[in-house]
Design a protein that fits this description.
The protein has about 280 residues and is an all-alpha fold. The chain folds into 2 domains: about 25-105, no CATH class; about 110-285, Hypothetical protein af1432 (Orthogonal Bundle), CATH 1.10.3210. The chain is built from 16 helices and no strands. Helix 6 crosses helix 13 (about 225-240) and helix 8 (about 150-155) packs across helix 9. It starts with a helix and ends with a helix. Residues about 1-10 have low confidence and may be disordered.
């Protein structure tokens, strides 16, 4: 069978088996927050009112705002206060984190736990890298935490099949994508593109979900940080699939721009411990 025929067959299977409308909906408050890209005073008020409209969501955001992750010197007692102290971008990223945590907890399995930890680790690494280059750290965090939403969807609706994908292991990401297309009818990058487009999310986030495993020689700015952050999360032990030939910490660091490399500790163990600590703070808030 030719490569072209294989791709054609995979697309046919995807059409038969993959339906983004069958995926459990993302929490409405977080989804609306994701669609707010501007950071004006008006949008901050809209975001504040959006979070306040859901009591449980408000409480979850306030708990994160009062966690060591944010580390304010005084207690944050209301969403209005949080909006004034955090600003639009940071408040939005907290809302998205709460939404994704809720999304995962509604379908909790060991596989979903691996997906959650990988997504958050990638977000933390991307944010840290972006800030070192004076880029938009909050956008980098959002793009990082959502880059693998296609894999999350596959793990939700085809848990047994996706477990078989992982049992195969892989030498590199391309092998994983090929196994996904063969067993699931679609790979997680295409699934992410399809799902995020169906949710009408900003185009830049859709493109990152679709292309985070593709060669990106022309990627610029914040977008260029997602692929190496994903690879580094895997190398630090926050992966979902077992790679038979894992890449070394030092090898992946070279993919980051020079200023970003200085934001990482000298050893992989130190960085993994820092990320583990941040993930625990998110989970315990």
């Amino acid at each position: 069978m030719s490569f072209a025929t294989g791709i054609s067959n995979a697309k046919e299977r995807a059409e038969l088996r993959w339906d983004p409308d069958s995926i459990p909906p993302f929490p409405a408050v977080a989804l609306k927050a994701l669609k707010m890209m501007a950071g004006s005073d008006t949008s901050l008020l809209e975001l504040c009112n959006l979070i306040r409209s859901d009591h449980a969501f408000s409480i979850a955001v306030l708990r994160l705002a009062n966690s060591p992750l944010v580390a304010f010197s005084k207690e944050v007692t209301s969403i209005v206060q949080a909006s004034m102290l955090l600003g639009f971008a940071r408040l939005r990223s907290l809302a998205i984190t709460v939404g994704l945590r809720s999304y995962f907890s509604n379908s909790y399995t060991p596989l979903m736990s691996l997906c959650w930890r990988h997504s958050v680790a990638c977000a933390i690494l991307a944010e840290r890298s972006a800030k070192s280059r004076f880029l938009d750290g909050e956008f980098a965090y959002t793009a990082g935490i959502l880059h693998d939403i296609g894999r999350v969807a596959l793990a939700m609706v085809e848990a047994e099949t996706y477990a078989n994908v992982l049992k195969r292991g892989a030498d590199q990401p391309e092998d994983l994508l090929e196994s996904e297309r063969e067993l699931c009818g679609i790979d997680h990058c295409e699934a992410g593109r399809s799902l995020m487009a169906a949710w009408d999310l900003p185009k830049v986030l859709v493109e990152i979900a679709a292309c985070h495993h593709a060669p990106q020689p022309l990627a610029l700015g914040t977008r260029s940080l997602i692929a190496p952050s994903c690879a580094l999360a895997d190398a630090l032990g926050f992966g979902v699939v077992r790679y038979r030939s894992p890449r070394r910490y030092e090898e992946i660091l070279i993919q980051f721009p020079e200023p970003a490399r200085t934001r990482f500790p000298a050893t992989a163990e130190e960085l993994a411990a820092e990320i583990n600590r941040e993930i625990r703070e998110i989970e315990s808030a």
